[in-house]
Amino acid sequence: MDYFSVTFGTIMSKMSTDALHTLAERLKSLERKSSLLNPPQGIRVQWQTAVEEYTNNFLETLKTEKAYYQREKQAENSLSSIPKEGIHIHDLLKDYQSSVMEEGINAASQGHLGYIPGGGIYPSALGDYLAAVSNRYAGIYYAAPGAVNIENTLIRWMCDLMGFPPTSVGNLTSGGSISNLIAIVSARDAKGLKAADYHRSVFYLTEQTHHSLQKAIRIAGMAEGILRYIPVNNRFQMDTKALAAQIQGDRAEGLQPFFVNASLGTTNTGAVDDIAQIGAIASKNRLWFHVDAAYGGFFKLVESCSKYFLGIEHADSITLDPHKSLFLPFGTGTILIKDAKAALKSHYYLADYMQDSYVDTNQISPADVSPELTKHFRGLRMWFPLQLFGTAPFEAALQEKILLAQYFYYKINEITGFETGPFPELSITMFRYSISNEKDNGINQKLLEYIKQDGRIFLSSTTIDGTFWIRVAVLVFRTHQKDIDLLLDIIKTGINQLTEQGHIPR
Ligand SMILES: *Cc1c(COP(=O)(O)O)cnc(C)c1O
Question: Is the CB–ligand 1 distance for residue 290 below 6 Å?
């Protein structure tokens, strides 16, 4: 007889000796099988060694690998199901190689200059490894005071960097989109907006604002809100006079101006809005002032960039993305909120089953400032590199990326037929081949296709007022001058080929 039917089927308060014996046998057998989940050191080392060899090989050959792979055929031998019995680590890694690594963008590559590149500095992987193996519960201070301290120290460091006071709070999020969502929700609740107000509540953005803000407004239930797209100047910065006038007009109409976003480095062109001016207008009109610095934020480490940050200390909230300008692996964003009460009002929660965890402390727990409860101890992937490297190499790398974007800007302008967007403020610039006729967009599309097919450098494009531009975004820590030189060579060869093929008149 199965012990389940003995213990639970017929409800008995005591088990017979036979039943107890069966239970013990069964448990022994289950323990043997479930212990596979806790492999001994021999197996752990075997797995570690295999992954280490794989990653070392990946890093050592990265220099000669492409930045973009156009996949011709579907990968063979792809493991597409979850097995009942485990497979060998070598088969697993072989499958990872063929089904993940051989197509799409190689985001770790020095040649990745598309979109906003991310990072992947090595010590972050070790931090993640340690966090996963030790598995401390970083959501609540009570559960892991040391882990939460590390995250709060990182938040404090970023608050200091942005000139936020010691009373401000923040959270390490999974990325800029969630950071923007936390900002919107905190702003909504801090201003006491109710559903009945939403149709009169006005958000001020520009066409260059990252789409995650509009998405966050929808997720926050405020889709009925009014979005005002303030015009931009020829450097793609918000026209602050137009902003002030629009707010005044909206007030006169009985609407409720509520939230303004300034971009510190737009995703499209890297433009930096006039933070001080927008902040002053926000303060005068009592708007929640959000600065989306997901791309540009850590350029604050570079002395020459401090001019862009003037007035940022007056923001109510700031989004940063360590997985962009701090070169961390994907999955690390940050929100900073000046008014702790505002952040807590939306996110703090008391639950009966968590009563033990409410210790008397002035330490904010990550769960108090985030939709998350249980979470990845992502602070460790930021803590490791900052401790092992210090901030100096980050500062140098960011300065280098700015200069590389400028170098490209000057060099491409030297080639006949090319024009560029505004001089790069940070590390993004854009260019196009222009023989001023209506076929230019098509030529530039073909040029980008050529660059992608070559694959050594990956670029992306954008369309502004109907004009197709190719973007160069320098933000991978591995990108250096020789990679920009390679890009310039590829562009020249591409133009020659398009000319030979008759797409460009001789
Ligand atoms: C990338 C980006 C975001 C979105 O961040 P994710 O980390 O991709 O979620 C928001 N705003 C700006 C300006 C960005 O560049």
Answer: no
